[in-house]
Amino acid sequence: MDTWPGSIAKGMNEWNIQSRARACQACGKPFADKEAYHTMLFEQKAELVRQDVCANCWENQYSQGAQDRKGFISHWQGIYEVPPPAAPEPIQKDTAEGLLRKLVERNDPQYLAVTFILAVMLERKRLLKVKEQIHREGRRIFVYEQTKTGDVFTIPDPNLQFSQLDKVHRDVAWLLEHGLEPQPPGATTPADIDASTQPPGVVATESATADNSANQVAPAPVEPPNQNSSVP
Fold this sequence. Notes:
Blueprint: E1 16-18, E2 36-44, E3 47-54, H1 55-62, E4 72-79, H2 96-106, H3 112-124, E5 128-136, E6 139-146, E7 152-156, H4 162-178, H5 206-210
Antiparallel strand pairs: 1-7, 2-3, 2-4, 5-6, 6-7
C-alpha cells in the first residue's frame, strides 16, 4: 500500500465519491473487460481527484516518479469490469450502499457517524475495501473503493465512543427503513428518535430480510475500527 508522506490542506472536502473511468484518462483508449488499470489519487484545489490510466500509459508515463507529482496521495491497481446494463429500479427502501451514497453526496455533518458505520458494515460484507488512510489535523480519513464498480469514497472517522454506538445503530436502522427524503418542518428525524420507541439493539427490518440483493445489509451492531489499526 502506497502512503502519502504529507498532510492534506485545510478546507479540503472530506466527503467524496468518484466513479471509475471507462477509458484511460491519459490516452483515451476505452478499457476492455478484465483489463488491468492503475488508479492514482491526487489533491487538487482542496479536492481529492482520481486518475485512471491503462497499463501501457502507466508504464510509459507514470510508473517512474508518480509519487513525486504535485498533490500525489496514493496509487493502486485494479481490474476493469464492464458495467452491466442498468435495470429499472423497483420502488424499495434504501439499501445500505444506496443510503451511503446519498449521505456522502449530501455532505451533512449530522450524518457523519451514520455514514461511517454504513461504510464499516459494507467493508465487512466485502462490498467496500479500504485503499488508503489519510491523516488531517488529527483526524483519519478513509479512502474506500467499491469492489464491483471501482467507485472511490472518502469518509472521515468520527472517533465514535462505545457509548455512542447504540444511538448510531438506531439511526442507521431508521434511515434504512424510512429513507433520506426531505421532511417537512417538525417531522421526526433520526436525531429525534426516542430510544423508548425502539427495540433493544438493532435488528433487520422486514423489508431488509425479504430483500436478497447483494448490498441490502441488515444494520447489525458494528464497532469502529481500532484507532491504531493498519489498513487491511
